[in-house]
Amino acid sequence: MSIAAINEQLLRAIGVGVALLDADDFSFRFQNDTFVDWFAPQPEQDTLPKLLPEFDAKELREQLLAKKRFTAELNFRKKRRTMIFAADFTLTTEAEGAFIVLVCQNISRIREMESMIDSYSMMVERNTREIKREKEQVEKLLLNMMPRSVYEEFKTFGVVTPKLYDPVSVLMLDFVGFTEMAASADPSVTVSELNDIYSAFDRIGEQFGCERIKTIGDAYITVAGLPDPTPDHSRAVANTALRFIRYLDRRNQGHPNQWRCRIGIASGSVVGSVVGIQKYVYDIFGPAVNLASRLQECSEAMEITINGPVKDALNEQFLIESGGTRKIRGFDDQDIYKIRDSRKGVL
To answer: Looking at the whole model, is its pTM more than 0.70?
Structure first.
């Protein structure tokens, strides 16, 4: 076997297509079997530009004259399939003249694999974005149900340890005549207005550092002093309560439905924890919650009723009037007080 035949077998074994081109006119002088199998040149396709009309022969010539070598990626359509080749052109000068050695490797499979990897990567990225978006929605929902620090504990450990907070100030709000309104008005209008009002309350409470705990129908409960203790929790809920009433006053001036509330504020201890197994909810329990509820019942429409400890904390900052002594269910007789909106001490 001749050296040329051995070289030809080696070239076939490694799957490399080789062609020898005349440097002057790019006509084929030699093509190995692999090259012929891939490109199947017809007699009239006796030059590279005729075989590959879209190939830039001008650039090839310029690069070879400048650098003696040029690499490119060739696309060749064979039947219905487009094949991709990595082509390496090398200019060589022999006694017979100048020639170009063209070495091709079929990289179609590599490109297909790269395309599949890109497709999978895009799918993974899309799924990752969807998972992240769903996670953010769940986080947003849970943060709407519990304070952030409680959520962080729940996320880390899966449970929330009940904690005693003492003292805190609890605000309990209830709307006057809501039952009659709900029974007589369009339910969608009532719920829509209630949602607007509660959203405004949330924004006001957040402004003063209050944490809305829950709403029960027309009852709204917010608290200051938990989960992070704050020395001015009474002032925070008092300012919040006054802003609630101001908001309703302004709103009632432009709406047919008149929303009027009663508010009770009490300071004391509460226990905060997540309750429930399948439907989690963060809730607070304790004397301050019960007393705020009872004090709310002592209020007239658009009035704020507080107990003694709250009054002592606010006495120098708000206009407070005595409401007398009342028998509070579940508690001893209590001296109650009313906060009047003098705008003194309001942030």
So the answer is: no
